[in-house]
Amino acid sequence: MIFYSWVALSGSHQTAASESDPTAPGENGLMTPGENGLMTPGESELMALSGDHSGTAGSPVAMGITDDRGRAMKAGEETLGSGRAALVLIEAVRPGMAARTLAPSYVRTGVAWLGRRTPLGEVAWTRFFLPTDPADQQAPGRIGS
Description:
Helix content is about 20%, strand content about 35%. It has about 140 residues and is of the alpha+beta class.
């Protein structure tokens, strides 16, 4: 079963280029062309996805997990619309288990969405793929390994 983990981040570091086009690479590195022409997150989004909220992406203002991507997007759009967040990151995850403690957890699938407000006040979503660590895929105790 796939779940969707989302986090809305405040943002104090924005550029004019990124405000006019939510997927344009700017000084804050929001989205950049990756291999095979696919858009990938910039440095601030990678820090946010890794749990490091000390960078330019800001701190989390809301987060959640759901079994429906539409609900995750709607929750993110509401947070963006309220002005509390500058961007929302949604990641597809699946249930997993920690190898040493057998504690339940969520494992990334490698696909994510970045949501930002457009100049017209709508939310634009950009799908991108996260690199996966081959060693993590073979970790003991993982569901499906």
